[in-house]
Specification:
The complex is a heterodimer of chains A (about 475) and B (about 350).
Chain A (H helix, E strand, L loop, with lengths): L6 H11 L5 E7 L5 E7 L5 H13 L7 H7 L5 E4 L2 H9 L4 E4 L5 E4 L29 H11 L5 E8 L5 E8 L5 H13 L9 H7 L11 E3 L2 H10 L2 E5 L5 E4 L17 H31 L6 H11 L6 H21 L5 H18 L5 H14 L6 H17 L2 H16 L2 E2 L2 E2 L43
Antiparallel strand pairs in A: 1-2, 2-4, 3-5, 4-5, 6-7, 7-9, 8-10, 9-10, 11-12
Helix pairs in contact in A: 1-4, 5-8, 9-13, 9-14, 11-12, 11-13, 11-14, 14-15
Chain B lengths: L5 H15 L4 H9 L4 H22 L5 H9 L1 H33 L12 H10 L6 H24 L14 H11 L6 H5 L12 H27 L9 H4 L5 H6 L4 H30 L5 H19 L4 H11 L3 H13 L11
Classes of the chains: A alpha+beta (about 475), B mainly alpha (about 350).
Chain lengths: ~475, ~350
């Protein structure tokens, strides 16, 4: 549907396309008699800016009645012409006012959208003692500017797409041309274009459509809230995805090892980074296996405990009315509830929750003989261990529960078999042609330098081979 | 994921020898050959190394076992021979599986548990067998280093308590004892047959044949070292010590203070053994699929069928392990050399037929 140049008729068509009451129109006439109408969505348009940069200059316009000439008079830096009425209606809904002129077959769109943003702050899910503290926010323009500020190169490509039938959410695909694999970029763009969703409230909605195994328990798309990590991943050859309205950026291909790395690892000496990564790995194993082995040992193989420890445990569990697995499940259940409540509860109730959790539920339950002290210690240790790798909590908490159930029913051999299942599942999972467990399976010797072990920055002269970047060298001459 | 890389193959070859021979075999050899228990093992390791070299030479041709047979004998005979080989792999799988069953029930539980303790293995195996054989390769990138570290850990823990001179004098069992032990241990050394289904799926690079053989030899010599250590610890009572690798390390001095920390290695090896025990089943299914094509549900159906059959065997032989072991390793032991010593070198004689390029 093209603009006819008849102001009343064009306005009527647009009003039909946009019947909402908060879509306002105002008619003006310039000093030289040029009649024009401005159409905008009231709640999301910056009217002050519209008046200052658009209406006021046009009221004094005395030049030729062409879109090009008129456009020059508008002082807003964001402006462009459009002839399609359907597209104009989309722009109005996005917060960009539209100017229609009498006897002109082009309309002008100006970028005076009202932006409601919170301040850039350190993300609560990814806190670093050393290194940058900026985090993404909900506005895609600010997020892309945070990326652009760190990658000042023409090779950085940011391609915008609209996803969501009704929300028409802006999605930015960011990559370094010549460094990212072209095929991966195209695959991601195709997958995003094919998404047929009503609305996209958050980037997590897209992960389901980007994953090669959508119903998998395993995470398949990387996430980060920090622009420094996002840029570092793009610079390694990955493709980044920013979604308007979401502070969580996505990266692909995803490797499991990414979640054992922290941005801080790159700002501390390599031996310290290696130590903390090993610690995270160990914490994860403890979180998953410790409760399961404790139950399996108690039920099926007491020999696993050293004699003195066995005597202590025997003394603690003597009068407990529940079976070891039921007792452990009970404590785990309480921990999960406390965890969930502490996230959702208003902050001022937090202290009360700690008191109830630690004293009432913990201390009293032990003295009443409902649960044993070792069970609480083990679940507490496991709970803390889980948070050493925060990005994997969703997966590991489910795996821990599965391990507990298997240990309680089949014992140690069940734990071993479930480990085998998980291992087989993980090694056969790929996303965008990249094995999730690389560089451990398949072993990629060079990439092991920045896996659990962290080499000195000088030794990481090449980009990870796993990501198959066409631009292999990152240090020295390319 | 469609091919097994050279490194993954080497890990597999380095691990199959130690992993499959640590449970019952050491006690059986010690009972029959005494201090000479290492001699039959050495014989088998050397023979299997030579055969594995032949199989790896075959792998160079880049064709599957079925394709190699079909090029020479035509499709019908190739199908028959493939099924025959698949049946042999099923037969070969029986002893390791029954062995694994009594190992699990004897080592992982204080009291004798119900049959249900081992039955989840068949769920795991069914899942594994339904996957393409080549995807198995990546698992060995994890299992290989895990098995090496665990086996080395057990050896280190055991070595301090072993009297290595106990195996002297060499030849004390006499020729009859050594020959008898060699014959009965054929059913444990079928490693070369495990490679046959992998033909055509190996990413063959220059020198892979001799490098792979060396890996197998290294694993084989680790077995010999373990056997000698085992006998050095238990000497006269070695013949009664089932589940050898779980017992040799328990006398390590640190264990009294820390508990059975050697169980970490034992659990890791048990995980590797679970994959190893399912390997012949997976190979057998793959041989059938090579011959009859990968129809939509065929891999899953075969996997379920084979694992149900073996679950039935474990129920049947629940308290008759010795009967099964004697039948396989003493009465029908001759089947093993036919398929694992004679057949692979004979395959080298199969015709090299060049496919017309598309």
């Amino acid at each position: 549907m093209k603009i006819t140049g008849k102001l009343d008729r064009d306005l009527g068509t647009l009003k039909q396309l946009l019947p909402a009451e908060d879509i306002l129109t105002f008619d003006f006439v310039s000093v030289k008699g040029l009649a024009f109408t401005v159409l905008f969505a009231d709640p999301i348009t910056d009217k002050e800016l519209l008046g200052e940069q658009v209406i006021r200059p046009l009221l004094h316009y005395d030049g030729k009645p062409t879109a090009e000439e008129v456009g020059r008079k508008i002082t807003s830096p964001e402006k462009r012409t459009e002839t399609d009425l359907a597209k104009l209606s989309e722009e109005v809904l996005a917060g960009n006012p539209v100017l229609l002129f009498e006897d002109m077959d082009e309309a002008i769109i100006v970028g005076t959208k009202k932006v409601f943003v919170r301040a850039i702050a350190e993300p609560s899910t990814d806190v670093a003692v050393k290194g940058p503290r900026e985090g993404f926010i909900e506005d895609i323009k600010i997020n892309t500017s945070l990326v652009r500020r760190r990658l000042k190169t023409p090779e950085l490509k940011i391609e915008f797409l609209n996803v969501g039938r009704r929300s028409q959410t802006y999605v930015a695909v960011c990559y370094l041309e010549g460094t990212s694999v072209k095929q991966t970029v195209e695959e991601i763009k195709t997958k995003l274009e094919e998404i047929d969703l009503d609305i996209v409230p958050d980037s997590s909605y897209l992960t389901h459509f980007l994953a090669s195994r959508p119903y998998s328990l395993l995470k398949q798309i990387g996430t980060t809230e920090k622009p420094d990590i996002f840029c570092a991943k793009i610079a390694e050859g990955r493709v980044g995805i920013l979604v308007d309205g979401s502070p969580i950026a996505l990266t692909a291909p995803y490797l499991l090892v990414e979640d054992f790395q922290s941005s801080e690892d790159y700002f501390v000496p390599p031996y310290r980074a290696t130590f903390t990564r090993l610690l995270r790995l160990l914490a994860l194993f403890v979180a998953i296996y410790l409760p399961a082995f404790y139950i399996a040992a108690q039920l099926f193989k007491l020999q696993l405990f050293p004699v003195k420890l066995l005597l202590t445990i025997a003394g603690s569990i003597r009068d407990i009315p529940f079976s070891p697995s039921l007792e452990m499940l009970l404590v785990l259940f309480v921990l999960e509830i406390l965890n969930e409540a502490s996230i959702r509860m208003p902050k001022y109730v937090g202290m009360a929750l700690s008191v109830v959790g630690a004293l009432v539920l913990g201390e009293t339950a032990v003295s009443a003989g409902f649960v044993s002290t070792p069970a609480i210690i083990i679940i507490a240790f496991s709970g803390i261990g889980l948070y050493a790798v925060p990005n994997l909590i969703e997966v590991t908490s489910v795996v821990r529960l599965a391990m507990l159930l298997v240990a309680g029913s089949v014992g140690t051999y069940g734990i071993i078999l479930l480990t085998g299942f998980i291992l087989l599942y993980v090694v056969t999972t790929e996303n965008f042609g990249t094995p999730v467990l690389a560089p451990f399976s398949p072993i990629v010797g060079r990439d092991l330098r920045d896996s659990i072990v962290k080499y000195n920055l000088g030794s990481l002269e090449l980009r990870p081979r796993t990501l198959k970047s066409p631009n292999k060298r990152r240090l020295g001459n390319e | 994921m469609n091919k097994i890389s050279q490194r993954q193959l080497f890990f597999l070859l380095g691990c199959v020898a130690p992993v499959g021979k640590l449970v019952i075999l050491p006690a059986r050899l010690a009972a029959n050959a005494g201090g000479d228990l290492w001699i039959p093992a050495l014989f088998h390791v050397l023979v299997q190394s030579a055969v594995i070299f032949c199989v790896l030479l075959l792998a160079k041709r880049g064709k599957s076992f079925y394709e190699l047979l079909a090029d020479t004998f035509g499709q019908i005979i190739a199908k028959i021979l493939s099924v025959l080989f698949a049946l042999f792999l099923l037969y070969a799988a029986l002893l390791p599986l029954l062995e694994q069953q009594i190992f699990v029930r004897g080592v992982f539980y204080d009291t004798l548990p119900s049959l249900a303790a081992f039955s989840p293995f068949f769920l795991f195996s069914a899942y594994l067998c339904a996957k393409p054989l080549a995807s198995f390769g990546r698992v060995w990138d994890i299992l290989g280093p895990m098995a090496i570290v665990s086996f080395a850990g057990i050896l280190v823990f055991s070595a301090t308590n072993a009297d290595y001179l106990a195996v002297l004098p060499v030849g004390s069992a006499g020729l009859k004892g050594i020959a008898g032990s060699t014959a009965l241990s054929f059913s444990w050394f079928f490693d070369s047959a495990l490679l046959i289904p992998l033909l055509g799926k190996i990413e063959y690079k220059r020198g892979a044949a001799w490098k792979g053989t060396l890996c197998y030899l290294a694993g084989g010599f680790a077995v010999l070292l373990f056997l000698v250590t085992f006998f050095g610890i238990f000497e006269g009572t070695a013949g009664n010590q089932l589940f050898a690798f779980t017992k040799t390390s328990k006398y390590y001095s640190a264990i009294t203070a820390l508990g059975r920390i050697d169980y970490v290695f034992i659990f890791a090896l048990a995980l590797v053994m679970a994959f190893y025990s399912a390997l012949p089943l997976q190979g057998s299914i793959d041989c059938v699929l090579q011959a009859f094509g990968k129809k939509r549900y065929l891999p899953t159906l075969l996997s379920i069928g084979v694992n149900l059959l073996f679950f039935g065997f474990t129920v049947f032989f629940d308290f008759r392990f010795n009967l099964a072991m004697e039948f396989i390793s003493q009465k029908l032991f001759w089947i093993f050399p036919v398929f694992t010593v004679l057949l692979p070198p004979l395959c080298l004689l199969l015709r090299r037929k060049r496919h017309e390029s598309a």
